[in-house]
Structure formats: structure tokens, C-alpha cells
Amino acid sequence: MDNHDQSLRDHLLSLLRGGSAHLSLTEFVKDFPAAGCGRKIEGLPYTAWQVLEYMRIAQWDILEFCRNPKHVSPKWPEGYWPKPDNLGDEDLWTETIEKFRADLNQVTDMISDPTTDLFATIPHDSGQTVLREALLVADHNAYHLGVLVAIHRQLSAAG
Hints:
- Helices cover 59% and strands 0% of the residues.
- It is globular.
- It is mainly α.
- It has 5 helices and no strands.
């Protein structure tokens, strides 16, 4: 592996794990009151747990897309979001965090593996690469972690 390839992998891993200007899930959840994960905020269509579960499902889907040619993605949007009446609770919050971390570890393992060609087209699709999918996971997670930070602020302000 050349220096440019390793450098790219290191940058991707930093984006995925949280670093530099990016918040990690671990950093976020350590200060989030799990008891509030299923609490609705006026004006928002989802709870913190619903956002986190959506993040988990999307990340899992991208991971499976990269490694399993027989994978079928859930139907959009209902296959990605929990049912609106399932607001979440502390047990679901913990379970979702554990599953999210496990899948993220698999994504980072794939990126860390020098035999993974980041630029090769994923054979069972129309042009996506592992690099593109890793950036998609990082971008999607960063965006929705920002949403979770805003929800946390609203929950804290509401008392």
C-alpha cells in the first residue's frame, strides 16, 4: 500500500469514527439522557431514538450493499424509519447504539483492509465505489448526529 492510499484510508477512518471537526456517536451518547430518547419535541416529526435507529438502518444498508451482491435495500422511506408510534425507550436506545457501533466497526474494518480497493466499482451496481459509500456513511452520520445534538439541546431547554 502506498502512502497516498494509506493517507486516504486514515482520513476516511477519522471521518467515520469521529475526529477533527466531527462528533462521534460515543461522544454524543455519553452526555445524552437516555431516558429522553423517546420524548417528542414540538415541531419535530421524530424522537432522538427514531433518528438514531434511522442512522443505524441506513448505515447497515450501505454496509450490506458494499459486501453482499444479493442484498436488497429496505423500501424507502418506511423501511428505514421506525413506525411513527414507536418512539423508543432506554432499552431500544442501548440496543441501537450497540448495533450501530458493530456495523460502523465493520465499515471501518473494510476501509482499513488494504485488500479493499477503494476505487473499484462495486460489481453488482452501476458505478458506486467503496470510497463513495464510505463517504456517504460519514456524511450521513455527521448530518444526523448534528440533528441529534439539536434534539438534545431542545430536550435540555425544555427541562
